Amino acid sequence: MSALIPDLEPCSFCGGEAHFSGFSDEIECEGCEVEVAFFKNGSSAKAWNTRAEDPRLVALENELDEELRFIGGCGDGGCIIVKPVGMHTNGGCKCSRDWLKMQRFAYAHNRFADGIRSALSQPVKPEGGAA
């Protein structure tokens, strides 16, 4: 879209295409016909495009971060496992020369990827209830 009319994400309920309708700040899904209207300049598009974080994915990300800190990096600024805070990459990571470290890294990555696939294949359960 143009700079004046913001792009809209697909509907978070059904995946349908969204469009502005009626008033200038009213948005409707073509699939499930859900509507969002705030009547403040640009607030409907911002609300429509905002997505809540999936708590399952946040938990997986935290688990991966903890596992990578446990594995530890080489201390180089370009480390592929744990980049030291405040360091810029220089492409000199030495972790790839440590086969055990790389094996642990691959295992952590595969567990993370499997967890994401599993989480995304199941619906999100609302808090305090069942899906």
Keywords summarizing the entry:
single chain; mainly alpha; 131 residues; 2 domains; 3-stranded antiparallel sheet; elongated
Report on the structure:
The protein has 131 residues and is mainly alpha-helical. It folds into 2 domains: 51 residues, no CATH class; 66 residues, no CATH class. The protein contains 3 helices and 3 strands, in the order βββααα. β2 and β3 form a beta hairpin. α2 packs antiparallel against α3. The longest helix is centred in the last third of the chain and has 22 residues. The model has no long low-confidence stretch (mean pLDDT 77).
Number of helices: 3
Q: Give the radius of gyration.
A: 21 Å
**How many structural domains can be distinguished in the coordinates?**
2
**Beta content:** 5-15%
**Structural class by SSE content:** mainly alpha
* Unreliable stretches covering 5 or more consecutive residues: none
Write the layout of secondary structure elements.
Layout: E1 18-20, E2 26-29, E3 35-37, H1 43-49, H2 55-71, H3 99-120
Antiparallel strand pairs: 1-2, 2-3
Helix pairs in contact: 2-3
Concise synopsis of the structure shown:
It contains 3 helices and 3 strands; from the N terminus they run E-E-E-H-H-H.
